[in-house]
Amino acid sequence: MKAWLIYRKEDANKNHGFIDWLITEAQLLGIELDLVMHHELVYGVRNGQLFVEWQGKTNPAFVIMRAIDPLLSEQLDLLGIRVFNQSRVATVANDKARTHQLLAKYSIPMIDTQFVSKEELLASSFASPVVVKAVSGRGGNQVYLIESVADLLPLVHERYIVQKKATPGKDLRVFVMGDQIIGSVLRESTTDFRANYTLGGKASLYQLSAEQHELVQKIITIFPVDFAGIDFVFDEKDNLLFNEIEDIVGSRTLTSLTDINIAKLYIEYILHNMKSVQ
Question: What is the CATH number of the domain that holds 239?
């Protein structure tokens, strides 16, 4: 079985350890997993037919998508090529406004969230402090704590969400694969209102309560993912509030704190999924 692992070059350079891990585990399970750079792909319509091509090769058995490109994910779906995560997940999870919109419909607890364009944001007078996030941001990037109008100057994206500031420097990431919770990591920072591990936050394992476990299960029932991170912040009573879903989730925190072989689990999950649809 031949499959593709798609990365953008800059992300591949930072994640070579995880890439090698996935390729090794795939090989042990009889899969030839090729690392495909996003910029080397050609896709679109040729002779009236949809196509995706890499170095003259087409039709992989499946694709592990580790580059944000919902259009490419949808192209793969339309060609009947199973992509992990699927295009619906990529489209919604990589847009913070769409994610909040979907989950709010099902009464998932979250911070009050306003959807605004850049122009609306610059023209508005929100009660400070507020947190402003580009809808396409990830990994704690394009997230701003706004104390005054002057803080709005760095904003360059077209759409944002605006929220009140939650408990600063503390959040929870729950790693999920299909309908299973793999593990939960509490991330804390004493130097930044963001607690992301890649931004210097500290991480520790976290045991979900029965109520919190039920909340996570409800989310993945509403929005089924293959492998993702569901992030929460805390209110003043330490209740969980939904924050975002990381479609291309990093697993450094989980693997540094446990002996979970997340690469093997993912490849095994993919193989099981492929067999179940054949």
Answer: 3.30.470.20
Q: How far is CA 210 from CA 148, 181, 213, 230, 256, in A?
A: 40, 13, 5, 17, 25
* The model's pTM: 0.89
pLDDT in tens, 30-72: 999 999 999 999 999 999 999 999 999 999 999 999 999 999 9
Domain span at residue 35?
Answer: 2-84
Residue 133, CA distances (Å) to 7, 96, 138 in order: 24, 8, 9
CA 36 – CA 27 distance, rounded (Å)? 16
The answer to whether 189 touches 200, Cβ cutoff 8 Å, is yes
Total structural domains within the chain: 3
CA 168 to chain centre: 21
- Asked if the structure places residue 89 within a domain, the reply is no
